[in-house]
Specification:
Structural class: mainly alpha
Strand content: under 5%
Distance between the termini: 70 Å
Order of helices and strands: HHHHEHHHHHEHHH
Number of strands: 2
Strand order of the largest sheet: 1-2
Length: about 325
């Protein structure tokens, strides 16, 4: 039998081939997770306000600030390069997360998820390494002002909110460890929370916002002590991608999978900001109800139309049988 989080095709009595595959997925998932963990720490450091005043650039090739990226005198080329780098992360990140792509590729979760994490991490590393600055004069510079600790505080809070949200969901499954190891690590550590009847996680962070990981990322994207033009471009591009991916891809997918319970959840919990006005949530709920009512009415109309046509056809057949044949 297959346990939650275990490989799909796990056998009760493993053969030599299955044992080799299990060893392979174990090595791959641990390696991919370690790569992600190191790069994620460096990535947060890359965005951290004023990091270059704490850690000199020469210590490690990626331990530097985004403001310390090489300057390109051609602003248009730098703009195009940076936009391409964000796209290089965004497009595969969303494309390979779609169910129809997973089904078409046909890999089991024990391979698919770790390799997906590997691809995501590699594209993050690429846009750290090749990012270009294109304007030396900052839009704002809060260093040495009373705003500096406030901005740094927002950054740290966003990072901690993001990281802890992964555990509120299922950190080990999210990053491919449970699938690769064939073990529900969250359950083994006693971190599983109560889910509703449709398998939705609504505890902790998810009772505040529907997408807390993205909320944390948005906060750290905009919490810049020094807001250069290239950092502003990064924040705008990542914000645009997150909003598009969530609103146009993720939420519609989940509504199709889960149905009305997820629609009702979205109507009561804001997507990103826990302080969103309740009026907007009521509008969302009203819109969801109208869509549901329209769907029900359409189905009812089609059903009634089908019944009416069937009734007419039956009457015509009955009448034709009663007419004497000449």
């Amino acid at each position: 039998t297959t346990q939650p989080g275990a490989p799909r095709n796990q056998q009760q009595v493993p053969t030599t081939r299955n044992m080799a595959a299990s060893t392979a997925t174990t090595i791959v998932c641990i390696a991919c997770y370690a790569y992600f963990f190191v790069l994620f720490v460096l990535y947060v450091g890359w965005l951290l306000p004023g990091l270059t005043t704490v850690v000199p650039r020469g210590i490690a090739p990626y331990v530097s600030s985004i403001e310390d990226s090489p300057v390109n005198s051609d602003a248009l080329t730098a703009f195009a390069t940076n936009t391409f780098l964000i796209s290089l992360f965004a497009l595969p990140h969303s494309f390979f997360a779609r169910d129809f792509v997973k089904e078409a590729i046909g890999l089991g979760d024990e391979w698919y998820r770790p390799l997906y994490i590997l691809l995501t991490t590699a594209t993050l590393q690429a846009h750290m390494h090749f990012w270009q600055s294109f304007d030396a004069s900052p839009i704002w510079d809060a260093r040495g002002t009373s705003f500096e600790p406030l901005i740094a505080g927002f950054f740290v809070s966003g990072f901690l909110f993001l990281l802890s949200a992964t555990f509120a969901l299922d950190h080990f499954s999210l990053f491919g460890l449970s699938q690769g190891l064939g073990l529900d690590i969250n359950k083994a550590l006693g971190l599983n929370g109560t889910e509703n009847q449709r398998g939705m996680v609504v505890r902790l962070h998810y009772s505040l916002v529907a997408h807390p990981i993205m909320t944390g990322f948005l906060v750290i994207s905009w919490s810049a002590t020094v807001m250069s033009a290239s950092r502003l471009l990064f924040a705008v591009l990542m914000t645009s991608y997150i909003v598009f991916a969530v609103k146009m891809l993720e939420e519609p997918d989940l509504e199709r999978k889960i149905g009305s319970p997820y629609s009702e959840y979205l109507a009561t919990v804001p997507s990103f900001c826990p302080f969103a006005p309740k009026s907007s949530r009521r509008r969302s709920a009203k819109s969801t109800k109208i869509q549901a009512d329209c769907s029900v009415k359409t189905e009812s109309s089609q059903r009634d139309q089908g019944i009416s046509l069937a009734t007419v056809a039956s009457m015509i057949y009955t009448v034709s049988k009663e007419i004497p044949q000449s």
